[in-house]
Every structure is written in C-alpha cells, then in structure tokens.
C-alpha cells in the first residue's frame, strides 16, 4: 500500500538509507561499493515475499516478476534466519549505456549438439551483459565453416567453455577452431574469451597450453591482480583480489607474445591476460557465470567434481559464492570498448 511504502522512506535496511520509492512497492536504496555506485531493492509492499535476484532488469519475487530497472543489488529476506542478507548480482540497468541495446554479439561455441549447456551458456552471457536474446548469435566451431565476411555486422566476439573438449589436444576440429581464433584476432574487433576461449586464444597466438590435473580447478576461487591488472581500466576497479567461477583441467603455462598478465592465483599463475595491440581480453575463470550457473554446469558434468575437487556435490555447493566483481569485468569491457567518450585505451 502507498502508505506502507512511503513510511519506509528514509529508513535504514542493511546499512543503507532509503532515498527513493519506485513502482510496484519497491523501495530503492543507495549504496557505495568498493568500485561503483549500486542500488538495493526490497519489496516493502509484500511483507515476507522473497526477492531472489535482480536479473535482466527485473527482481524475481516468490509470486511474480516486479520491475526494478534501477536496482543492481537486491536485499533478500533469509527465511532461515529471519533477517536480511545482501545478495550481490551482476550489474543491471543502472548506469548502463544505451549503446548496449545496439551491440551485436557472436558467441563461438565448442559444445556437442546434445550438451544442455549450449543454451545455458547463451543465457548466462545474455544475463550478465543484460542484453536481449536477439543480440547474441551462436556459431558452432565443431561443425560450421567460419567466414569473417559473413559476420560483418558483428560488433563483438565471445568465447566460453567447451564441455568435453580440450584446447591442449589435437585434431582437425581444433586446427579449424584455432584458425578461427586467429582470424578473430586479426579482425581487431572487441573480443572476450573465458575458460576454453582463454586457452585456445593463447595457443592460437603462440602460447602454450597443457592438461595438468595438479593445477585443475573447479568451484569459486580467489584471484589477485598483478601490477598491470591494478592499472588496467577493466580489471583495476575490481580491487586487489576478487573471486571467480572456475572449471578447468587445462592451463596456459606460457602466454602468447604481445600480451599482459592481469590476474593470477596461488595455484595457477596465468588467470587473465589482454592483448597489447587488440581489444581482446581473456580469462581462465567465467565472468559470465554466477553461483547457480556453476551448479548447473557441474550437474551436467558431475565427473569434474570428483576428479578435480575430490568432494561430494553437496560439499562442493556449500563452498560456492557469488562473484559480482568477476561479472563486472565483462560489462566494464563492453562499456569501455564501445563508449566513444571513454579515454581508456586497449
């Protein structure tokens, strides 16, 4: 009710003062994180309703989807503890340049036709980038012939994971895929590559990739910025350290020429790099995946938990956490790559 909503103006929830009320009974809060101005939303017109997350510009309650186009961070009612907890989520519409609505993406995939993660990967990039599904097209690196001219209208290339395929192996399909990566590199168009894409781009451009179970990782892991990472316009705002979602058995042990290492970890040295002469960023971890996304991946590939982590699925899930700083890397890269007003250089 309006009276109830208005009564919350100026009150504090989770340390943030209410400074705005938006339609549908959502009170809006302002909160400063380490790197950016974010918003918080809580449904004050439906006591007891749980706002699960703010995704694609919407808050999802237990009953319905309610508009919260201004929110990046939602306060979530924790029924187990009867208190509010903060649920960090990837950036939404707050401060997102309108140019995002016009960018055309091509996601180049290495996944079998019956892999349930084919569609999920598209959805994960779509949600993290907060773009319409029509803006992301898919190319199958396993079966299709790639021609750069056929995708002259594509503004940015995306590469993700691969399911059961290794960038350290051999085969005709891999040689074709590496040629595509070289062609993408030559094009000079903005490109973001995670996991398999990180490894394959390194190998395609002269780096070295190996399969090494001693450095395999699965789950949410801590990363540290290098000195170059601190000074990088994409990685610097993430802070000294942050967490990322991972699932890999291959590692890049030698970066390709003309690249700069941006992030590292205790177990794996090369976790993120950029090309010095191209707007191309590559990460071993998955900025496009949230906690629940990684759970779905490991439900599809359960063998990795036992082989890499050596724990049960439930134990694995208990160790996962949200990774908003990681997700912000992807959106910040797009903002800097396409905002002509930006002074950042790649």
Sketch the major β-sheet. 9 strands, mixed
What ranges have pLDDT less than 50 throughout 5 or more consecutive residues? 1-94
By DSSP (H or I, 4+ residues per run), the number of helices equals 9
Residue share in helix: 10-25%
What proportion strand?
25-35%
Shape: globular
Number of strands: 20
Helix-strand makeup class: alpha+beta
Mean pLDDT level = 77
**Spatial sequence of strands, sheet with the most strands:** 11-10-12-13-20-19-18-15-16
- C-alpha termini separation: 50 Å
User: Could you give the order of the helices and strands?
Assistant: HEEEEEEEEEEHEEHEHEEHEEEEEHHHH
Rg from C-alpha positions? Answer: 21 Å
SSE arrangement:
Elements: H1 2-7, E1 12-13, E2 16-22, E3 26-32, E4 37-43, E5 54-55, E6 58-60, E7 65-67, E8 73-78, E9 83-88, E10 105-109, H2 117-129, E11 136-140, E12 156-159, H3 172-187, E13 191-194, H4 196-204, E14 208-211, E15 217-225, H5 227-230, E16 241-248, E17 250-254, E18 259-264, E19 272-275, E20 280-283, H6 291-300, H7 303-309, H8 313-318, H9 324-338
Parallel strand pairs: 4-8, 10-11, 10-12, 12-13, 13-20
Antiparallel strand pairs: 1-2, 2-3, 3-4, 5-6, 6-7, 8-9, 14-17, 15-16, 15-18, 18-19, 19-20
Helix pairs in contact: 3-4
């Amino acid at each position: 009710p309006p009276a109830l909503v208005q009564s919350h103006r100026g009150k504090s929830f989770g340390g943030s003062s209410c400074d705005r009320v938006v339609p549908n009974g959502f009170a809006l809060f302002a909160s400063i994180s380490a790197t950016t101005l974010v918003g918080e939303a809580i449904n004050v017109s439906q006591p007891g309703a749980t706002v699960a997350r703010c995704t694609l510009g919407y808050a999802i309650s237990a009953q319905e989807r309610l508009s919260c186009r201004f929110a990046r961070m939602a306060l979530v009612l924790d029924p187990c503890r009867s208190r509010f907890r903060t649920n960090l989520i990837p950036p939404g519409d707050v401060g997102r340049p309108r140019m995002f609505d016009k960018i055309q993406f091509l996601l180049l995939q290495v996944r079998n036709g019956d892999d349930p993660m084919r569609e999920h990967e598209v959805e994960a990039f779509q949600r993290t980038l907060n773009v319409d599904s029509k803006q992301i097209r898919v190319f199958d690196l396993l079966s299709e012939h790639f021609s750069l001219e056929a995708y002259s209208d594509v503004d940015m290339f995306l590469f993700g994971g691969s399911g059961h395929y290794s960038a350290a192996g051999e085969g005709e399909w891999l040689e074709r895929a590496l040629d595509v990566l070289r062609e993408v590199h030559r094009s000079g168009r903005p490109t973001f590559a995670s996991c398999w894409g990180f490894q394959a781009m390194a190998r395609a451009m002269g780096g070295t990739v190996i399969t090494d179970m001693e450095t395999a990782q699965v789950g949410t892991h801590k990363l540290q910025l290098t000195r170059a990472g601190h000074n990088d316009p994409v990685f610097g705002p993430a802070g000294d350290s942050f967490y990322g979602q991972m699932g890999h058995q291959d590692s890049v042990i030698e970066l390709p020429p003309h690249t700069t290492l941006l992030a590292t970890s205790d177990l794996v040295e090369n976790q993120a790099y950029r090309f010095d002469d191209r707007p191309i960023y590559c990460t071993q971890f998955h900025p496009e995946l949230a906690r629940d996304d990684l759970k779905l991946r490991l439900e599809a590939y359960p063998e990795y938990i036992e082989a890499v982590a050596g724990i049960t699925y439930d134990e694995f899930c208990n160790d996962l956490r949200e990774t908003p700083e990681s997700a912000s890397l992807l959106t910040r890269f797009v903002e800097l790559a396409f905002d002509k007003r930006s002074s950042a250089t790649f």
